[in-house]
Write a structure and sequence with these properties.
Helices cover 56% and strands 7% of the residues. It folds into two domains: 211 residues, Rossmann fold; 82 residues, Tyrosyl-Transfer RNA Synthetase (Orthogonal Bundle), CATH 1.10.240. The strands form two sheets. The protein has a three-stranded parallel beta sheet. α3 crosses α12, α3 packs across α13 and α10 packs across α12. With 327 residues, the protein is mainly alpha-helical. The longest helix is centred in the C-terminal third of the chain and has 30 residues. The chain is globular and about 75 Å long. The chain binds adenosine-5'-diphosphate and tryptophan. The site of adenosine-5'-diphosphate has 19 residues, from α1.
């Protein structure tokens, strides 16, 4: 089975990215599946149009993936832009994609509502994402719930292509784990780089503690009982603590005498413990950006090979003649 996923280098990685997506990437890798993981820098260009910023975040995300355990020996790990075939496939898919499908995209509408300029790249974003997935004959795509519609569009486009040109493309499936589908941020909304409500993975323990202290809670006094199910701190604790501790904290919430401050402090400790090793590895990798670039270069080479094989099939299926001798 082939697993594929990508993250846009549009901000620093946070707990939502880890629990909603990266942890599942690692699961597929550890189970010995064929894995393709990449950094969607063409997608990021729809919203970041600053050379230094895009380069800096691209390298951050690459370093972060490696520090968190993506292993280039077991996973093909690469940059989207190192596989130019993907934009070629996006064009071909554009030609079979109804405009009405893109007009229904909720992420496009959300981005416009947040004030992003309505460029064609933003409108066409789901088609490029479909190309990302389809070009590697991917079977499963581990993502958070916000990507569900993009995955449905990808399946629709693969099916449409096969109907129009004969069985050519693998129809992929989203892999969304319900318990971690939407990780809440500091304000209780979905944690997202765009909402400035994230807890970053790679920051100092002190900064983590400060960020946890900013989680919005209600004004129930310390001695009064609290409802754990309405509390963002508890929702995050449930992701990190062992079952026995979760039960114990739940009891403390319900019986009173346990303040949100206590829960926030414990949450920060758990986050700092979980990422201690990855943070150390990140610092080491950061000192050697050439190593990170070499890893991406080798991953890109492998990804291009797979992409070119699919494209040979795709071009032939739809009558696009190619006269060049090699990819
Ligand atoms: P952001 O919303 O911060 O811009 P991305 O869109 O780059 O994050 O998401 C990268 C991956 O992480 C996607 O698979 C996405 O579904 C997942 N993800 C991001 N935020 C969350 C969240 N709060 N809960 C669950 N998964 C998330
Ligand atoms: N749209 C995804 C996000 O914002 C990023 C992405 C681009 C992606 N191409 C992909 C995710 C292909 C999975 C598969 O998170």
């Amino acid at each position: 089975m082939r697993s594929l996923s990508g993250i846009q280098p549009s901000g620093r990685l946070h707990l939502g990215n880890y629990f909603g997506a990266i942890r599942q990437y690692l699961k597929f890798q550890d189970e010995g599946n064929e894995c393709f993981y990449f950094i969607a820098n063409y997608h990021a260009l729809t919203s970041i149009q600053d050379k230094a910023e895009l380069e800096e975040i691209t390298l951050h995300v690459a370093t972060a993936y490696l520090a968190l355990g993506i292993d280039p020996e077991r996973s093909v790990f690469f940059l989207q832009s190192d596989v130019p075939q993907v934009t070629e496939l996006a064009w071909i898919l554009n030609c079979i994609c109804p405009v009405s499908m893109m007009e229904k995209a909720t992420s496009y509408k959300d981005k416009i509502a947040r004030g992003l300029p309505a460029n064609m790249g933003l409108f066409d974003y789901p088609v490029l994402q479909a190309a990302d997935i389809i070009i590697y004959d991917s079977n499963v795509v581990p993502v958070g719930a916000d990507q569900k519609q993009h995955l449905e569009m990808t399946r629709d486009l693969a099916i449409k292509f096969n109907l129009a040109f004969g069985e050519t493309l693998v129809v992929p499936e989203a892999y969304i784990v319900p318990e971690v589908a939407v990780i809440p941020g500091l304000d209780g909304q979905k944690m997202s780089k765009s909402y400035d409500n994230t807890i970053e993975i790679f920051q100092t323990p002190k900064a983590t503690k400060k960020r946890c202290a900013q989680i919005v809670t209600d004004s129930t006094p310390l001695e009064k009982p609290k409802d754990p199910d309405k509390c963002t701190v508890f929702a995050l604790l449930k992701l990190l603590a062992e079952p026995a501790e979760i039960e114990e904290i739940e009891k403390k919430y319900c019986s009173g005498g346990y303040g949100y401050g206590h829960a926030k402090g414990r949450l920060a400790e758990l986050i700092n413990d979980l990422f201690a090793e990855a943070r150390q590895k990140y610092v080491e990798l950061e000192k050697d950006p050439d190593f990170v670039r070499d890893v991406l270069s080798e991953g890109g080479r492998k990804a291009r090979q797979t992409a070119e094989t699919t494209m040979t099939r795709v071009r032939s299926a739809c009558g696009i003649l190619m006269n060049r001798k090699s990819g």
